[in-house]
Write a structure and sequence with these properties.
This protein is mainly alpha-helical. Helix content is 81%, strand content 0%. It is built from 17 helices and no strands. Keywords: Membrane, Transmembrane, Transmembrane helix.
Amino acid sequence: MHSIPLQLIRTTLRLWWRHWPPLVLLVLLGYLFNDWLLRIVVEIGLRNHVLGLSLLSPLVVIELAVVIAMFHVLRPSLPALTQAPPGHTTGTARGERLATALALALVPFFAYYAGWGLLGDTVREYSLAGLARDPFGKYGPLLDALKSHGLVISVAASWMLRRYAKAREARKHSTGWQALIVLCEANWVFIGLFVITRGKDLLMKWLESRVVWQYFGGADADVAAPVLAPTLFDSLGSAAQGMFFAALLPLVWLAITALIFGRDLGEQSLLATNKRLEKIVGSYDRLPALLRQFGDDFVKGYRTRYVPVANSVRLTLHAGLTLLLCFCVGYRALEWLSAQAWIGATQLIGPHAMDFWRPVGGALALLLGDPLGSTPGIVFEPLRICLLAATLELAVAAWRQRRDEQPAAVSTPLQAQ
């Protein structure tokens, strides 16, 4: 148990030392692609607001693609994660692996993106870039696309294009068709989350303007809340809540890492080690052919997407609480070091005018990362990726070691007899 923290640090630094040049290059390429694509999308959005909003989804896809590419750079140094289970082929092209990983991680990554407010940051960055490009509003506000039916047309067009791409990809497997499918899915997920976010705000404003809301709000304001002294349970509850939210983001990113590598671990590994799930799948396979065909059509794609996820996450959790605690502490320590490096750099440079800080702040964000965590830096982002990969590598290696020891432990008493 005491060697787990040292083992995690040693594996993380070993991955970083072996692969830091391509990792840094990928961070730089992601930064450049994001910047130039945002400029192109703003130019398109000024002329067509709906089309500009629809083209924001590739910004998120590029960020996810860079993360996946960084993990695939580390593949040669991750033997436990890349070791194929029995009956699972590994002769897959790199482009096809990237497209498959994008399809697996797309929806969960968008959920993380929206849950942590990064979706709003992307829309805000797009709006500010449009304001800088058109300060007098000659082309109108960029975010007034909700007032038109163009978003429905955009989603419908993406759905039809996705169906066509899936049909062509089924006939002839191609990385290009898979990438087009991913972009179409990203388009309607992004627009759906944007509409839900904006619609929720509009709905709350409408409810707050109603008489019934004012009545209940006024009645509630008349009742003073009791003033109670904080108790031990309140302190423990507050501490537990703080620890939960501190560990939530690292665990979410670990789940996304498991998504990316989950395809390599295969579905049969999960069924072979989980008797309950094996019984459920066996019962489903014994259903009548008509019901089974309807179920396959209804959940088509979800089994191949999320069974590897469940496999990887379960193996990670089976690695033990010590590894997860060390990972969460290490993840937050990297964030703290990034923030402290930013503060130290600004204090070292000293106070200057805003015109000075615009380019210097951008350079610091590229080097150390944004203080708000929205821009990855070339110093700490490769370390973060290496920490994620090292944690999952150690977790899967520990699980496979226990799995290999079980048959030996069973065969030893039999040989003694």
